[in-house]
Structures are given as C-alpha cells and as structure tokens.
Amino acid sequence: MFWFHFFERFPESSRLWKRCDKTFLMNPLIWLISALVLIIPALIRHIVWRCRQYREFVRLVDKLPGPSALPILGSALKFSPDSEKSTYQMEYYFRKYTFEGGGGPDTMKGNPGIMRLWIGPKPIVIFWKPESAKAILESNVLITKPFEYSLLQDWLGTGLLTSTGEKWQRRRKLLTPAFHFKILANFIQVFNRQSNVLVEKLDECAQNEYPFDFYRMIKLYALDIICEAAMGTQLNALRGGNPKYVEAVKKMCELSFLRMRSPWLWPAPVWWLSGKGGEFARNLRAITEFTQGVIACRKRERAQTRQQNGDGMDGTNHQNDSNNNNANKSANADESGKPAACFLDILLGLQEQNNFSDEDIREEVETFMFEGHDTVASSVGFTVFSLGHRPAVQARLHAEMDHLFGEYPERDITYDDLPRMRYTEQCVRETMRLLPSVPLIGRDITEATEICGFTIPAGCTAMVAPFSIHRDKRYYHAPDDYDPEHFSEENVLRRNKEPFAYLPFSAGPRNCIGQKFAGTEQKISLAKIFRRFRIISVQHELESRGLPELVLKPSDGFWIRIERR
Questions:
Q1: Residue 512 assigned ligand-binding role
Q2: SS3 449
Q3: Beta bridge partners of residue 330, listed in sequence order
Q4: Full-model pTM
Q5: Cα 410 from chain centre
Q6: Which residue stretches, if any, does this entry annotate as coiled coil (predicted)?
C-alpha cells in the first residue's frame, strides 16, 4: 500500500521506476547473471552426483582381479601396439590372474573366472570360465555388441552382426530358416566344386615340391566359396579372377581392424585426416558396386523366370546374357540350368514377402561374406598346419578317408557322407578348441549384472574368452595339447553337463547363425585335401602362432610342403 500511495503522490517517481525497470529487464548481463545463479548450483550438484556414481562404478570394477591401472591410461601401457607382442602379454596376464590366481590349473578353485583390465578409462571384464561366461552369453538382455563393432557399420550397415534390440531380433527370426539343414544340403555342390579347384592348385604345389604359404591359398578359396554360396556368383579368386574385388575385401578387413584397435582413429575427422578414411571409402565403393551389381543381376534373373513361367513356357530357363560381367554370372545351377538357391535368393524372397529393402539385402550379404570367409580360412588353415606336425593323427585321418572313399577316391562328397566323417570332425573341433577363429566374444553390459558373487556395473565391456575356457582342465585331459580324442564320443558325452565349456561359435541367443554351414564346409575341404595329399609343416608351430585380430590369424602364414599319397 505504501508504494501505491507513494507513486500516486509522486508521479515523477513512478515514471522513473518504470524506466529503471525497463532498463533492468533489457540488460543481457542481468539475465546472464540470473541464469548463472540458477544453473551453476544445479550443474555442481550434477557433477558431484556423476563423480559419486563414477567412484562407485570404479569401486565395483576394482573388486575384480586384474593388473594395476593408472588414472586415465588404465593398463594400456602394459601392452605393446604390436599384435604379436601384445598377444604374449595378454596370455601372461591371463595365466597370472586366472589359472595361477585361482589355485592353479589343477584345482581351478577360488577364482570366479573373471578378470578386469582398464584400457584407458574403459573397463574390459574378461570371462574365462564356463560358469561366468554362461551368465553373459545366455542372457536375453545383454545382446548389444561393444562400441568397436559400430565402426564396421560403414561397411556392413546394421545387419545381423552389428544390429541390436528389436531390429536384431526381427532379422534373426527372418534369417534363421535360411540355415536349416535342408537348405544347407543345397550348398554341397558349391563346396565340392570349389574344393576341386583347391585340389588342382595343391596338386601343382605337390609337383613343385617347394614349401608354400597355405594361408594365402585358403583365404582365396574360402572367399570363392562364400561368394558363390552368398550371391550365386563364381569369383574365381583362387584362379586370379576379380582382383579388384579380392584386394578390396582384403584391405577392408585390414583397415577395419586397424581402426578398431586404435582409439585415436575413432573420431571421424582424425580417421579422414590420417588418409585411412579415404582409402577405406575407395575400397568400400569397389565392394558395394560389385555387390549391388550382383543383386541387380539376380533380381533380373528372378523376374525373367517369373515372366517365362507366367507366359506358359516349357519351364526351361535360358541363361541370362544381359550381364556383361563374368563375375556376376550365376554359376550355382542344377542340371536343368535353373539357378539353385543361394543366400541372396533367400533374401530376395524375403523382400517379396516382407518390407526388406535393397539396402537391407546388401547389409546381410556383406555380413555373410565378412563373417563367412576369414573364419573358415582360419580354422581349415590351422587344422592343416597342426596335422602337418602330427603324422600319427594325419595317418588316422587318411585311414578314415580310405575307408569312406577307397573304391571311388575322386568322387564328390555327399550330404550322407558327412556324419560318417567322425575323426575328421574330431580334428576340426580340436583345432577350434585350441585355436578358435573368434578368440574373444564381446558384449556391452547395459545393466548391472550379478555374476559369481560380483556386481558387474553397467558401462563395462564384457569379453568372453573361448581361448581360456577351452583350456579348462576340468573338461579337457590335456588342455594345452592337440589331441582329437578330446572329442571322442565318450568325452563329448561327459562334457555335455557343461555346454559352455566349448564355444567356437559362441552360444545363447547371439550364437553364430552359420555354424552348420561352416562345419560342413570345413569337413568337405579337409576330406578333399587329405584323401589326396600328405601334409608336412616346415615351420615350428610357435613360429606362426595365432594372433587375435578380427579373427584368429597366423603370425607368419602356414608354410607347408605337400606330397601326393
């Protein structure tokens, strides 16, 4: 009331107050100060809350066994940037904080099968026992791949390997029928055809009698198989065909791994300024053009087939001569000349039935190509190299080949032959036990998870380590030795009580969808090689140890000599 009467009695003062009030409201400095007065306390409270939260996060992580870590850098300085040296260093810490820290390899007591590493400010939690790995792999919640996989999305998009959540679940459900054993039987002709080419190349090497690097050959062979199975296209890489595409695939794998293991290259500007981004883009363009050309060609063939059938023709499919690129020629055909189903045909069928775009198809074809060639090349290569050091094991494998194919040693392998290749399968499985193609299986911990009495907080990266799980003395009588008897029928039955003791293809909801395809390819490849040749490895096994890159690869190739039987 006082101010009302005051301004009523002194109108000049009222005008002055209004003028000051207007000046006050129009002053940006006043507004800034007011905002800071409100924001700064809230910001301080948020920072304090985040610091407490991070301190609790660090406290929970540091409860886990593992090497000491520095602030910010973590344990990074304990590891060499060189792949081979860092592999030895990682193996040292595995043995120190797992087997030795848990009461020794004989007892396996005390240690929960968990080890942590700080790589910079990021904790990596490694699970090396079946019990602890099971909690990660069988979870329907922890299905997100680590951040590093997102670096593959420029190449593979968000296909089955890199997607998560609802999209991954939808894709997995759609694609699972594509790997049914009845469909896999259609690929037997592809495996036979390409393995015959491999045998021809090996026969040339047998004539020369000189040592050679089998790894280069098996990578091209695996690429030929996966290209024909995925896209119905004969790449002929083993015979020197399509060098631009073959080189692009090789460079993309190398560049992808380089970026994944080099955090300073993760920011896009640094990636491009380093020159690697441009190189990546050029090779990606070569791969994409090839894949899109094959997809377009296959769609034309399917449209032509439908048109012919609709026009009442006799059902004989004439070869499509519209494509002027031999690489895009449909080669996987049955006796009638009708193109047999490949993975691309299945995807095109899904496109007609579901909302599946051309880009969706490209993503899954590229994913199948990426996952399906290096992994098989690794497993077949390490098997051949390992058997080249073990004449007794190789002799037993030769005996199985002679028993199965003695009267017709040159005939193609049929689907019915596969279950009878018991010792061949034992050799493959033993190789993948000691030298798993995928040595680490990654997951993001998206919510706090209780495992073996420890709380693994959200924000950690989980790495399941088949390399160590497969050396658990409770399940393998000679864990560090190559012995196919680990997979005799008796030992497999005994180990069935713990299915997570053997994880060459992962396990749980995100296990490898193509494991039966890979297993069939491996057995046919080895059967074709060993029923014809004797292998002699010419370098010590430690001279070419497995390096964990995108897949396990030899540090110095697979140098062997080969003899005709």
A1: yes
A2: strand
A3: 233
A4: 0.85
A5: 35
A6: none
